[in-house]
């Protein structure tokens, strides 16, 4: 796997940890190291630390509108969502199988077609057979893909701060956007930021999200990326993107360049999991939190 894809993988997983740690990792467990306090160079220096109230209110309104557009009321009523999932990164298929996700407790099960089973039980990540190599690790896959699936419904999570509402271009499309950060102590990396892109039309959907994180904890290696969502389909009142593409990102160009990776969903359905869905497989070993 080339270095560019490795950077993408690491930034994606750390972003997912930073944003979803409240649901997935209890406070008593160790956390990944926080990012440095310096701001990314891609954020304009003229941007105020405390945006005007009107921009905060507009950001809140956009976040609510996006959640409604994707069917948040129907989403809240489900026990679990199951999808057929294919993840391709750097031209290599790394996941091809079925994912079951419990959005209430953050539990996840992924069964790969090659016989590998991964489970996150709400506290710990397990993989079977033992010593399975699935870079950058089973825990990465268990936490990252469910979060990116559920982003439209997580914009008002506890501790989330929405601000800096503005129009930004995404290719030829003009989008409403806002900056998403978290209060100190809420996530692993409160100084990192996320830019949420929404369509400007009535009922507009969340079509992209940029994010930055410190790769490997080194201050000099911040590299923004973006995930672009398309092929929206409704299932039982919930609208989910069935195609996700990862690209580079900067403030001026937005998401740009060749695709670094792609995720495709099929056969989305809602179900009630049984008692064993999120249990540790018999011969599984733990994949612990990264240092």
Report on this model:
This protein is α+β, with helices and mostly antiparallel strands and 291 residues long. The chain has a single domain, classed as Clam (outer membrane lipoprotein receptor (LolB), chain A), CATH 2.50.20. 20% of the residues lie in helices and 38% in strands. It has 4 helices and 13 strands. A 13-stranded antiparallel sheet has the order 6-7-8-9-10-11-12-1-2-3-4-5-13. A hairpin with a 2-residue loop joins β1 and β2. α1 crosses α4. About 13% of the residues have low confidence.
At a glance:
The chain has 4 helices and 13 strands. The chain has 291 residues and is an alpha+beta fold.
Describe the secondary-structure layout.
Elements (H helix, E strand, L loop, with lengths): L2 H22 L28 H17 L2 H5 L3 E10 L2 E11 L4 E6 L4 E4 L4 E4 L9 H13 L9 E11 L2 E10 L11 E6 L6 E6 L13 E11 L2 E13 L3 E18 L13 E2 L5
Antiparallel strand pairs: 1-2, 1-12, 2-3, 3-4, 4-5, 5-13, 6-7, 7-8, 8-9, 9-10, 10-11, 11-12
């Amino acid at each position: 796997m080339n270095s560019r894809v490795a950077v993408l993988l690491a930034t994606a997983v750390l972003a997912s940890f930073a944003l979803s740690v409240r649901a997935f990792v209890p406070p008593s467990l160790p956390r990944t190291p926080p990012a440095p306090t310096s701001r990314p160079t891609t954020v304009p220096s003229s941007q105020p630390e405390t945006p005007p109230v009107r921009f905060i209110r507009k950001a809140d309104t956009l976040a609510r509108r996006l959640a409604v557009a994707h069917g948040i009321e129907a989403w809240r009523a489900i026990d679990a969502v199951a999808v057929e999932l294919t993840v391709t990164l750097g031209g290599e298929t790394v996941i091809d199988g079925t994912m079951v996700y419990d959005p209430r407790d953050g539990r996840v099960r992924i069964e790969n077609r090659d016989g590998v089973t991964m489970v996150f039980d709400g506290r710990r990540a397990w993989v079977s057979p033992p010593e399975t190599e699935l870079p950058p690790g089973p825990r990465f896959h268990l936490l990252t893909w469910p979060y990116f699936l559920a982003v439209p419904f997580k914009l008002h999570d506890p501790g989330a701060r929405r601000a800096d509402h503005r129009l930004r271009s995404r290719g030829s499309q003009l989008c409403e956007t806002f900056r998403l950060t978290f209060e100190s102590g809420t996530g692993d990396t409160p100084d990192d930021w996320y830019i949420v892109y929404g369509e400007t039309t009535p009922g507009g959907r969340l079509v992209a999200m940029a994010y930055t994180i410190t790769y490997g904890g080194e201050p000099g290696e911040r590299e923004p990326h973006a995930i672009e969502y398309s092929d929206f389909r409704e299932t039982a009142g919930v609208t989910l993107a069935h195609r996700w593409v990862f690209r580079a990102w900067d403030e001026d160009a937005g998401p740009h360049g060749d695709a670094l990776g792609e995720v495709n969903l099929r056969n989305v359905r809602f179900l009630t999991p049984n008692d064993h869905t999120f249990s540790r497989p018999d011969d599984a070993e733990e994949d612990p939190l990264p240092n």
